[in-house]
Amino acid sequence: MRKVRWGVLGAARIAMNKVIPAMLQGEYTEVAAIASRDRAKAEEAARKLGIAKAYGSYEELLADPEIDAVYNPLPNHLHVPVSIQAAEAGKHVLCEKPIGLDEADVRRLIEARDRTGVLIGEAFMVQTHPQWVRAVELVRAGKIGKLRHAMGSFGYFLKSAENIRNVREFGGGGLMDIGCYPIKTSRMVFGEEPVRVAATLVRDPQFGTDILTSAILEYPSGHCIFTCSTQVAGNQSMQFFGTEGRIEVEVPYNTRPGGRERLRIDDGRDPYGSGITIEELPACDQYTVQGDRFSQAILERTPPPVPLEDSVRNMRVIDAVFRAAETGQWVELDAAARA
Fold first, then answer.
1. Residue 335 confidence (pLDDT)
2. Res 268: pLDDT
3. How far is the C-alpha of 83 from the C-alpha of 9, rounded, in Å?
4. CA dihedral 243, 244, 250, 252 (to 10 degrees)
């Protein structure tokens, strides 16, 4: 069986600790090279993970004719320029979320994709994780009646000035890093685009990044309400409420590699949980699944799991949340833009 030969751009923590080890287990993925601006760092990463090739620059890796695709986990402000560079080198690209700094940024990437003919997709692992595939399936089947609202939170505590998540010009802050998840998953489960958005946020006086952001997304069928924070005790939750019940994705985002994730399905008969049933999903690693699905898209020349058209829509909502918080007004998302 042919495998897609992957190169990794940079030795980011998410790549080293989560994505690369998972992709090494893939049925359709082969991690063949890693690059860093520091050759010694790339060589150390390659030794640690058993990767055959190490490069001292991104350009060297992109020039390697034996690399079919690249995974881009670089800081947010480098997602689009380096992904364009990779596309122009003829490499398919799986780029970490958020894929750009704003909607216009993603549109630049679409132009590069269309010009070069490669596949480019956003690394939202929730799109292909079996628990989210099942949650969408249950809602579509009417398991909780008519979906009316979603509610979520996502947070951690990080107050280091050196960390890129706290550097505003690098695309840092809570909304970009983790608020993008309840936006993405609510769009997935509703199967719609928000009509308008309201929001409020607090910025760190030192960093200038948003450290506490709350938003209301108004969909044609209902509402999503979420809060994200980078200066709060670690937490994550996502629930979907319908006219006949609710679904809770127990660990929505940082799932356990090889773990069996669970959906809690409540028929709402009482507040004590007597109407709750638990559905356990098969064990998997969400990053293995993500890599394999993208590799299959390359091999079969089909759209990636999260195409850039979806990324534009998600980034448009992120932009709207920022505008709503800054103005204190609802921000409308017109029908033409939502299409």
1. 62
2. 93
3. 10
4. -40
With a CB cutoff of 8 Å and minimum separation 6, the contacts of 141 are: none
Residue 155 three-state SS:
strand
Parallel, antiparallel, or unpaired: how do β-strands 223-229 and 147-157 relate?
Answer: parallel
Contact predicate 1/19, CB 8 Å: no
pLDDT, tens digit (0-9, with 9 covering 90-100), for 189-235: 999 999 999 999 999 999 999 999 999 999 999 999 999 999 999 99
Cross-strand bridge partners of residue 203: 210
Q: Which of 97, 146, 159, 184 is catalytic?
A: 97
Do the beta carbons of residue 66 and residue 79 sit within 8 Å?
no
Distances (CA, A) of 304 to 102, 116, 241, 246, 318: 21, 16, 29, 30, 22
The pLDDT assigned to 223 comes to 98
Q: Is 97 a catalytic residue?
A: yes
The count of C-alpha atoms lying within 13 angstroms of the C-alpha of 255, restricted to the half-sphere facing its C-beta, is 31
CB 26 within 8 A of CB 292: yes
DSSP alpha helix (H) spans, the chain: 13-14, 20-23, 39-49, 58-62, 79-88, 103-116, 130-140, 174, 180-190, 286-300, 308-327, 335-338
3-state secondary structure of 273: coil
CB atoms within 10 A of CB 140: 11
CA 271 to chain centre: 33
The ranges of the chain with pLDDT < 70 are 1, 335-339
Query: How confident is the model over 109-145, as pLDDT tens digits?
Result: 999 999 999 999 999 999 999 999 999 999 999 999 9
**Res 13: pLDDT:** 83
